[in-house]
Amino acid sequence: MNEAKANLLSRRQVFRQIVGATACLSFPEILTQLQLESQTTVKSTAKSTAPNAMPVLSSEDDHFLDDLERANFLYFWEQGSPNTGMVKDRCDVRASRQDMAASIAATGFGLAALCIGQQRGFIAKREALERVFATLRFLWKKLPNHRGFFYHFANAETGERMFDSEVSSVDTAILLCGVLTCREHFRHPAVDQLAELVFQRVDWSWLLEDTSVLGHGWTPEVGFLSSRWNDYSELMMMYLLGMGSSAHPLGPDTWTAWKRTTFEYDGMRYIGSFAPLFVHQYPQAWFDFRGQRDKFADYFLNSVTATEVHRRWCLELGKQFPDYGEDLWGITASDSQQGYVAWGGPPAMGPIDGTVVPSAAGGSLPFLPGPTLRVLKNIRNHFPGAWCKYGFVNAFNPLKNWYDTDVIGIDTGITMLMAENLRTGFVWETFMKTPEARRGMERAGFQKY
Fold first, then answer.
1. Per-residue model confidence as pLDDT tens digits over 138-159
2. What is the dihedral of CA 41, 374, 39, 50, to 10 degrees?
3. pTM above 0.85, yes or no
4. Cis preceding-peptide flag for 347 (omega within 30 of 0)
5. How far apart are CA 231 and CA 274, in angstroms?
6. Could you tell me which residues are beta bridge partners of residue 392?
7. Cα–Cα distance for residue pair 150/293, rounded to 1 Å
8. Which residue in 47, 149, 311, 441 could disulfide with 446, CB within 3.0 to 4.6 Å?
9. In angstroms, rounded to a whole number, what is the distance separating the alpha carbons of residues 91 and 390?
10. In 201-324, where does DSSP find H-type helix?
11. Residue 420: Cβ within 10 Å count
């Protein structure tokens, strides 16, 4: 088994553990139809910020984020297939290794990246639309699916299932968020039609399998996986999309079926789970929870608190690993010298060894703008081995002088989308205009306050 395949397989297995135990038209024909100081620490209490106010960034901060987004966009443009739109799961930026494994989650982030790139002028509208159309057409016509859900990993050019991967509920959800973002942003008849076909094909009720909580996935060899989405995590995006479906909707009772466990650290209380920091980030790349709540919580402020808790915990770890400090912190599921690790905390998960994961701060940019910008700029300025043409490598360990050679699509994606949300709220604003997002949150009982 080669190293790339080993990374992919271990990653898939690790993620299971931490969360559970117009198609006929040619493109030419379609085209014719055509509040915060940058270095201020954010207080992690519900009264600390006006939830809907966009922070005021310095010109230096905005320039840094623009450079970061341009680099991130290049990943999705170069590592996405022009023929299928499928985005490779990872890329070795230090070698000429050419992996063919695409990830449907990376493809979902890539679709949103095309919207950001076109909006910011990184790419012409015609080029962006061409890639979007190629992706949606491939999703609808050729990429293997089961009840509308897609396999986690597929060959980037053929769509063939790879590594005996599962039909994945959460990765399909990330893909669908990208699909809906493109539909709302481009407002093009062919994109509208294909996006609608792809989304409405998803049979959310099938995934319940006579229970009130969604399953992690399914394989033709064993049927439904035993793991269930029943604890607070990135699952929010799946349940809200399912409740927002008009073809195969989930019932409102599914929103209250999963557990919301309260954690406490250093006097701060928040809803969480025994999982890395990314679980607080992924749903909020698209769903805008600011200024509203269901009967349980304000999930935006909950993520603010969870991120601040993680930051303080990393500072405490600095006694053991002296690289951690105000300028350098952040641990979430990532590569390491020993392979892919689902580490984080508190409480501590995984064999923590001083490794830093840039997407931990990058994916939390809207939650703690000042502290996260401080970390990312420090990495860019003082750890050149952690930077490449696509932005940050996946992870590095300055104590061991180890720098990853890979960039991973989903971690690059969460960084890019959250950087744009911090700057303008563009992804939030675009996605929340979709009827599916509005309907899902209404059925879940969200209200502004």
1. 999 999 999 999 999 999 999 9
2. -50
3. yes
4. yes
5. 9
6. 387
7. 31
8. 441
9. 10
10. 204-208, 236-244, 299-317
11. 29
How many C-alpha atoms does 131 have within 13 Å on its Cβ side? Answer: 27
For residues 378 and 370, the answer to whether their CB atoms sit within 8 Å is no
With the C-alpha atoms ordered 41, 46, 47, 52, is the resulting torsion angle positive or negative? positive
How far is it, in rounded angstroms, from Cα 448 to Cα 293? 7
- At residue 364's C-alpha, the angle toward residues 301 and 184, to 5°, is 85
Q: What does the pLDDT look like over 324-376, one tens digit per residue?
A: 999 999 999 999 999 999 999 999 999 999 999 999 999 999 999 999 999 99
In contact, 159 and 94? CB cutoff 8 Å = no
d(C-alpha 85, C-alpha 212), whole Å:
34
Which tokens belong to 397? 């360990």
92: alpha, beta or left, given left = phi > 0 and alpha = psi -120 to 50?
beta
- 177-208, pLDDT tens digit by residue? 999 999 999 999 999 999 999 999 999 999 99
What interhelical angle do 59-78 and 409-423 show, nearest 10? Answer: 140
Q: How far apart are alpha carbons 358 and 330 in whole angstroms?
A: 7
Distance CA 157, CA 87 (A): 10
CB neighbours of 236 closer than 8 A, spacing ≥ 6?
283, 287, 299
Q: Is the dihedral of CA 35, 119, 136, 414 positive or negative?
A: negative
Which amino acid does the sequence have at 12?
A: R
Query: Residues near 170 by Cβ (< 8 Å), separated by ≥ 6?
Result: 19, 105, 216, 229, 234, 235, 237, 238
Three-state DSSP state, 92 = strand
Question: What's the angle, vertex CA 8, arms to CA 421 and CA 18, rounded to 5?
Answer: 65
